[in-house]
Amino acid sequence: MNDNNKFYNIITYGCQMNEHDSEKLAGMLENMGYQATNSLDKADIILLNTCIIRENAELKVYGKLGSLKPLKEKKKDLIIGIGGCMMQHDEAVDEIYKKYQHVDLIFGTHNIHHLPDLIEEISKNRNRLVEVWDEEEGLIPDLPARRDGDYTAWVSIIQGCDNFCTYCIVPYVRGRERSRSISAIVTEVKKLVEDGVKEITLLGQNVNSYGKDLSEKENFAELLKELDKIENLFRIRFMTSHPRDFSLEIVDTISKSTKICEQFHLPVQSGSDKLLKAMNRGYTRSYYLKLIESIKEKMPEAAISTDFIVGFPGETEKDFQATLSLVKECSFDMAYTFIYSPRKGTPAARKEDQIKDNVKKERLERLMNLQNEISYLQNKKLIGTKQEIFITGESKNNSQRLEGRTRGNKLVFIDKTPDLIGRLVEVKILEAKSWTLDGKLSKIIK
Ligand code: 5AD
Ligand code: SF4
Questions:
Q1: What is the extent of the structural domain holding 227?
Q2: Residue 161 beta carbon below 6 angstroms from any ligand 2 atom
Q3: Fewer CB under 10 Å: which end of the chain, C or N?
């Protein structure tokens, strides 16, 4: 099929993995001759790539689906498809199939490479299709991705999660851990670099588990060492790390490399040993504090971010105080804070000592206020320093300014000089806000 006047729109919810899957969905649609559009009215195909991690994410999807109904009534040929993590749960599939008759296609996370065939069948027969697999069938082909940025790209290195933290639904919907081979990843990154990409972010629910299902020689530190050798690549980032599996070998590899950025996203979830145990996280508060200390010892300039869940079943004020004191001890550059959301089928959802909503909200606010202050202080420390910034484009809010990121992934704005986009520069930091920095170009590095 090759129809040049057909348009698609993809709405993505959730994490970077989903964003990256959406790039692959977009790549396949473009190969079929569809073009991207921001307008839902203009689109011939609308896809929702869903997230199931918290109830809020699901409610947004149902809201959006409802709002698409009038579009379908106006344009009978419109194809509405829904995929992603929510569709790996039978209940959501049944509900959507029954109650949202305007949805033509339901697909899962393990068969996104079938999208072209599914769309073709719907276009031909105008029937509704559901295709969700429990797991992948054999090797998944490398899919073309339509990247959002010219100079930055995501690279998936491991899918799934075997950890079964008691609150989390991811292991049930994304399946067991499956690593791609080092050679497949290196080949992909080299191709991206040939296309002009200068910065890659390696993606996985738990990148430190990378290679556990491969040969003995293939582990995360080894992968990093191989990628570090690739010429014309400026920067390597990765996320997410599990503190339990974060080896000192990895800390060492990063400290010796120039390309691997000193940015660590190490979700801690709670500062209370009792809760860490109930969450099945596999580490203690003191283990986590020591890990942070050893990273800062080797790389004093490292930027460290984390995730917290407040209101996990059984969380007392004392447990919450332990979280607040951990926040102070670690001086995180940034933290993502979430209210515990019971997910059906997970052990924590079955617990009786659930926390009341008002208590959860109040704790979230206290935690956010504290972390915001600390984030601001951390950013203020950079005033007057010179930072290596990779300039990725114009600032979204001011076309007279350019934006880029520090090695620690902080957003920095400088005055616009057109030929700096795609270059690695040195910037003197002049001003700090809670989330961004302002600076002035001091020299071009490459
Ligand atoms: N409720 C709230 N937050 C959750 N997360 C995962 N599951 C839940 C849940 N049921 C958070 C964790 C994780 C991040 C990606 O989402 O903090 O690190
Ligand atoms: Fe969920 Fe834990 Fe796996 Fe992260 S490591 S995806 S929180 S089960």
A1: 152-380
A2: yes
A3: C
